[in-house]
């Protein structure tokens, strides 16, 4: 057998509907059906979408209190402020480095590191 040889499985419409019926009646869980019939969970999810069986989809319900929501909003606001401060700090550092390059050149230093050493600026 070659490396790229794959087994392609095709399932009939009645078989797909049978699987969805078993899932909806609660005879088996999705993971049990996957093991029983050697079907990937993503395949069953595709069938659920194809046949518009949203009742069988896993749903995520997120329960939050007002305190949690306000805390999340405050944290998001703080993150935005910190991002702005970090950007400003990076820009300030870039400007300082540019000034030092020009100053080193104008004052006749061989490198910016030499100027920083003379001025006792930490690298």
UniProtKB/TrEMBL annotation:
The record, for Gene3D superfamilies, names: Winged helix-like DNA-binding domain superfamily/Winged helix DNA-binding domain (1.10.10.10)
User: Which segments of the protein form a coiled coil according to its record?
Assistant: 65-92
Question: Keyword annotations for this protein?
Answer: Coiled coil
Q: List the protein's name.
A: Transposase
Native species: Olleya sediminilitoris
């Amino acid at each position: 057998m070659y490396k790229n040889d794959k087994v392609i499985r095709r399932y009939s419409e009645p078989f797909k509907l049978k699987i969805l019926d078993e899932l909806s009646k609660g005879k088996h869980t999705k993971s049990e059906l996957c093991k029983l019939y050697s079907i990937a969970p993503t395949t069953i999810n595709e069938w659920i979408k194809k046949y518009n069986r949203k009742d069988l989809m896993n749903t995520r319900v997120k329960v939050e209190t007002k305190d949690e929501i306000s805390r999340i909003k405050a944290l998001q606001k703080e993150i935005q402020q910190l991002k702005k401060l970090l950007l400003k700090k990076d820009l300030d550092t870039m400007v300082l480095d540019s000034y030092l390059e020009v100053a080193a050149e104008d004052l006749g230093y061989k490198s910016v590191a030499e100027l920083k050493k003379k001025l006792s600026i930490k690298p």
